[in-house]
Amino acid sequence: MSFQAPKGTFDWMPPRSERVLAVRDALAAPARRAGYGYIETPAFEDTGLFSRGVGESTDIVTKEMYTFLDKGGRSITLRPEGTASVMRAVIEHGLPGGPLPVKLWYSGSYYRYEKAQKGRYRHFSQVGAEAIGIEDPAVDAELITLAVDGYASLGLTGVRLLLNSLGCAECRPAYRAALQDFLRGLDLDEPTRQRIEINPLRVLDDKRPEVQAQLSGAPLVTDHLCGACKAYHEEVRTLLTAAGVVYTDDPRLVRGLDYYTRTTFEFLHDGLGSQSAVGGGGRYDGLSEMIGGPPLPSVGWALGVDRTVLAMEAEGLFEAEPSTVDVFAVPLGEEARRVAFGLVVALRRAGLSVDMAFGGRGVKGGMKAADRSGARFALILGDRDLAAGAVQVKDLTTAEQTAVPLAEVADTLKGKLS
RNA sequence: GUGGGUGUAGCUCAGCUGGCAGAGCGCCAGGUUGUGGUCCUGGAUGUCGUGGGUUCAAGUCCCAUCACUCACCCCA
């Protein structure tokens, strides 16, 4: 009997897995510097939170959720995205005493029952940020710049930003009706015709050429925005431009979740196979009320960690794999192994990054392991050194080797490594 | 859910019109009984994805099935 990762999932293994950690940290760093606090919510929630928050008509809810009954008969769903959980937590615990907005960031795994392909799996990792409880174009612009800065800090140059406004409860219905009128006149297959009635905006997202060809004359949201939405959107654009953010207005940009209003944006990259988005987000002024909370106009984004790694690999970043440790000990013989073990523990406690050769292999094998570890220094310890109370410190880049008294090893190495 | 491609060693793959299961890399050991990277020598590792069928004989042909992969719908 053997096992493999469940269908549609994958493992990040060393050394490549280091990239995930680096990306996660880098994407979160700008938000942390901007006063966003860390929030951690459960990986699963009451199913109703997602069906009501994300939207009954979305594909996520209709066919992509991992839903099951727990032993208490409750319907539970593995989170397919992060925003609904964060909003639930904020509503549940009451608003913090401080001023609005409540600014939060988070990071974790999300789950969707998808048919896997490059850049799209049944479990994936995101870093998210949300600014809850305020309506201010500067907050929208702030979040976008934080994401832009995160990508830039990783060295990515191929990330493009698309920007749009989906309007609000005032102006969207009229646009929706106009779009439906237009779409009903097209030659489309049955699933798409159904989508016209449920969520017509998403028809604009269809990638099939025969569909896109018919959409050229479709009415655009931007032509139907109310005065308030138009002014809001203009202000977001002005602030972004002032911050030096390059973006493309895309009146066709819609997003898969029902809760989005006004500002929406997506970060695209070409290194993801047939997927294109490395991140995305927008304003969701109605979500809180949809899930039973007070009016809390909010805005946020989620950036795909795995997809960002793919994008970076496509750009040829990550040239060299980082070495795992700085120092590698090679003991020769039983007694030396005991002394070496103690030395390694002491060096680690002194703050050094240290590994050692296990399994009683010979010097040659031990040195080979030292070399493969990427360590700068090897510590060689045999009977002769034990007798002298010293250890051979060998610089693996220059092959220079000197005997150092055991008591001085830590300080010597620290000096050489600083 | 739909369509294409691929399943052979840890990894990347070769294996022709059926005829002894292979290479490179990696791993282990030796050359050097206390010294890595280069070099040389040797070694270990396989239900050939799985089940069935055809055949004297199947990694190879046929059927089924599973998995992986890429793409579509959709999505970060």
Which helices and strands, and how do they pair?
Blueprint lengths: L16 H17 L3 E2 L5 E3 H7 L5 H5 L2 E4 L5 E4 L4 H11 L8 E10 L11 E10 L4 H17 L6 E6 L6 H13 L5 H9 L10 H6 L12 H16 L5 E2 L11 E8 L8 E7 L3 H4 L7 E7 H10 L12 E5 L2 H16 L4 E3 L6 H11 L3 E5 L1 H6 L1 E6 L5 E5 L3 H9 L1
Parallel strand pairs: 1-5, 7-8, 12-13, 12-14
Antiparallel strand pairs: 2-4, 3-4, 5-6, 6-11, 7-9, 9-10, 10-11, 14-15, 15-16
Helix pairs in contact: 1-5, 1-11, 5-9
The chain binds one RNA strand of 76 nucleotides through helix 3, strand 6, strand 10, strand 11 and helix 11.
Helix residue percentage = 25-40%
Class by alpha and beta content: alpha+beta
CATH superfamily of the largest domain: Bira Bifunctional Protein, Domain 2
Beta-strand content: 15-25%
pLDDT averaged over residues: 89
Number of helices: 15
Please name the CATH topology of the largest domain.
Answer: BirA Bifunctional Protein, domain 2
The domain count comes to 2
- Termini distance? 50 Å
Pfam families: HGTP_anticodon, tRNA-synt_His
GO molecular function: ATP binding; histidine-tRNA ligase activity
InterPro entries: aa-tRNA-synth_II (IPR006195), aa-tRNA-synth_II/BPL/LPL (IPR045864), Anticodon-bd (IPR004154), Anticodon-bd_dom_sf (IPR036621), His-tRNA-ligase (IPR015807), HisRS-like_core (IPR041715), HisRS/HisZ (IPR004516), HisRS_anticodon (IPR033656)
Catalytic activity: tRNA(His) + L-histidine + ATP = L-histidyl-tRNA(His) + AMP + diphosphate + H(+)
